[in-house]
């Protein structure tokens, strides 16, 4: 296990994002991949970021491998599946910058990312910090889902920091019951939770942020950053709760990847020795810059954020 190595696990797809004039540009994105990308942007060169997924043998999958390599994201945990294909999605934006998505992912190779247990274990054993999401779990067959959770429980017992963002997408799940059970099992396998309050209210029936935090505390999670969008975040750690104010956003153009960038900034900050409160404050600044630009992956003007006083 390498304490200076972050492994994110999940699905990366071709992204079609709107640009001026009603046109679309293509790139690559996906919730945990976005987190890995932002962490890589914010970490020094001597710290490593890898991505675990499965890709096809098509040219778009090959393009993603090259994109990862150019971004400094390790590709050793990527499985290539012959004759499979990468998934694709399109972003639609309303006048307020809020997004909706159209997906073509039913045959995505990433659905087989946990189908090779030995490959998965080797990737997880190397990392001191591991991040996954509810989407990671939702795209997997039930048996592979349990295999992944078993490896994460094993890594947690060995001392790894396991980060989970529920990132709820009900349409990806076979049932709401399966979604609830898997997210609870994921929380128990984790050491850090990064949920969104709006999703907790909408999909898990909580009535307040205190109830959301209590729900995860009851599952044995001691470290929680509850994201509240324009209202900032609430950090709960070892029984103490701190409110994190939102960072000023000069403009809101596209909220795509706001939460993912927040997650990446939290993990990058923790890996560099910051406490959870400070990590969340830095993450709020990163997210405020991301929503001022189009697309999931954007350059952060204050990239050397670790030197900024927040």
CATH first level: which class? Alpha Beta
Instruction: Look at the structure and name the CATH superfamily.
Output: Ribokinase
Report Rg.
18 Å
Which structural class matches the secondary elements?
alpha/beta
**Which strand order spans the largest sheet, edge to edge or round the barrel?**
5-4-1-8-9-10-11-12-13
The rough form would be described as: globular
Continuous helix count:
10
Helix content: 25-40%
- Please name the CATH architecture: 3-Layer(aba) Sandwich
CATH topology: UDP-N-acetylmuramoyl-L-alanine:D-glutamate ligase
Total strands: the figure is 13
Percent strand: 15-25%
User: What characterizes the major β-sheet?
Assistant: 9 strands, mixed
Count of the domains: 1
The residue ranges in which pLDDT falls below 50 over 5 or more consecutive positions are: 303-310
Return the average pLDDT rounded to an integer. 90
Secondary structure topology:
Blueprint (H helix, E strand, L loop, with lengths): L1 E8 L3 E6 L5 E6 L1 H12 L5 E8 L3 H13 L6 E3 L7 E6 L5 E6 L12 H10 E7 H5 L3 H16 L3 E5 L10 H13 L3 E2 L3 H8 L4 H9 L5 E5 L5 E5 L2 E5 L13 H14 L4 H15 L20
Parallel strand pairs: 1-4, 1-8, 2-6, 4-5, 8-9, 9-10, 10-11
Antiparallel strand pairs: 2-3, 6-7, 11-12, 12-13
GO molecular function: 2-dehydro-3-deoxygluconokinase activity
EC number: 2.7.1.45
Protein name: 2-dehydro-3-deoxygluconokinase
């Amino acid at each position: 296990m390498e304490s200076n190595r972050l492994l994110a696990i999940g699905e990366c797809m071709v992204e079609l994002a709107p640009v001026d004039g009603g046109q679309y540009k293509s790139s690559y994105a996906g919730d945990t991949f976005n987190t890995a990308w932002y962490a890589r942007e914010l970490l020094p060169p001597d710290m490593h970021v890898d991505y675990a997924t499965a890709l096809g043998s098509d040219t778009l999958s090959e393009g993603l491998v090259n994109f990862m390599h150019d971004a400094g994201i390790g590709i050793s945990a990527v499985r290539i599946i012959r004759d499979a294909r990468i998934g694709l999605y399109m972003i639609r934006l309303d006048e307020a910058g809020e997004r909706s998505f159209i997906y073509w992912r039913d045959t995505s190779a990433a659905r087989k990312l946990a189908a090779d247990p030995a490959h998965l274990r080797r990737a997880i054993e190397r990392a001191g910090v591991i991040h996954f999401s509810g989407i990671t779990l939702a795209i997997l067959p039930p048996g592979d889902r349990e295999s992944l959770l078993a490896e994460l429980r094993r890594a947690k017992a060995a001392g790894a920091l396991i980060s989970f963002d529920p990132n709820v997408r009900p349409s990806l799940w076979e049932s709401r019951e399966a979604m609830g059970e898997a997210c609870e099992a994921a929380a128990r396998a984790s050491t850090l939770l990064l949920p969104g309050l709006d999703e907790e209210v909408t999909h898990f029936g909580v009535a307040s942020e205190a109830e959301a935090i209590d729900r995860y505390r009851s599952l044995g999670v001691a470290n929680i950053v509850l994201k509240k969008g324009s209202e900032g975040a609430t950090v709960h750690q070892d029984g103490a709760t701190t409110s994190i104010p939102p960072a000023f956003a000069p403009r809101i153009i596209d909220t795509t990847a706001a939460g993912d960038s927040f997650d990446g900034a939290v993990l990058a900050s923790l890996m560099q020795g910051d406490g959870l409160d400070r990590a969340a404050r830095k993450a709020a600044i990163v997210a405020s810059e991301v929503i001022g630009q189009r697309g999931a992956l954007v350059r952060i003007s204050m990239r050397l954020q670790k030197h900024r006083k927040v």
